[in-house]
């Protein structure tokens, strides 16, 4: 017999702000910052390697925070939290700003090719 699915945690806008703030703070803790830096250096700005090396570390850091708020301690919990934040982004400018900050911590800066490095035109 299958067990009943766990109830999805729901947070108010205020609670989502608190949790998001705690997640961002977790990334600036020295041990987590070192783990992220090591993963980024190993990935060498290669997007495939970023997904293999950086994303799992980032997921673990987030899981440590959000599990205290009822999200499961697996990747699914992080996805549910991300969906919840996405929903609140349109309603709350503070959450939108914090979400942007979190994304900047997770994603490498995009490097654009220098102007004029494309196919020469004649």
Automatic annotation (TrEMBL):
Report the main location listed first in the record.
cytoplasm
Keyword annotations for this protein? Cytoplasm
Q: Does the keyword Cytoplasm apply?
A: yes
Annotated localization: Cytoplasm
What InterPro entries does this protein's entry cite?
A: P_C10 (IPR026317)
Mind telling me which GO cellular component terms the entry cites?
cytoplasm
One GO biological-process annotation of the entry reads: post-embryonic development
Task: Indicate the transmembrane segments per the record.
Answer: none
By sequence similarity, the record places it as follows: Belongs to the UPF0456 family.
Q: What is this protein called?
A: Protein C10
Organism of derivation: Phoxinus phoxinus
Q: What's the source species' lineage?
A: Eukaryota, Metazoa, Chordata, Craniata, Vertebrata
